[in-house]
Amino acid sequence: MKALIVEPMKAPYEEEIPNTLAALQKTVGGTIQALYPYPDEVALICHDEGKLLGLPLNRRIEDYDIIAGTFCIVGLSEDNFKSLSPTLIQKYKEKFAALELYIPLCD
Q: pTM of the entire structure?
């Protein structure tokens, strides 16, 4: 399936990945969590314990949270994930194009 990969301090890029749990876990580097913060039929797949493991902070997701580590955006079908449409790939590439740098203010 076509997914949009968003790594810390890198521009988002499109990648073809298998639609399997193992492939999604490999993409984010561990156990996955699916979030649905947008009105589009998309899922944001991230590392379930990214912050606990100290993965680098990546992008702010609206007023929801800051995602730690690599995440991907995939499309949604009725009961599974699916490829993102070209329109949604472009929309989320633009949304996450700006790199975000987070500086800790204390230990």
A: 0.91
Phi-psi region of 16 (alpha: psi -120 to 50; beta: other; left: phi over 0): beta
> What are the extents of the domains in the chain?
2-95
Question: Contact, 11 vs 89, CB < 8 A?
Answer: no
Q: Which of 17, 72, 64, 85 is nearest to 43 (CA)?
A: 72
Cα(56)–Cα(68) distance, rounded to whole angstroms?
A: 5
Which candidate, 38, 46, 27, places its Cα nearest to that of 88?
Answer: 38
For residue 8, the model assigns a pLDDT of 95
* Percent of residues, the chain, with pLDDT higher than 90: 84
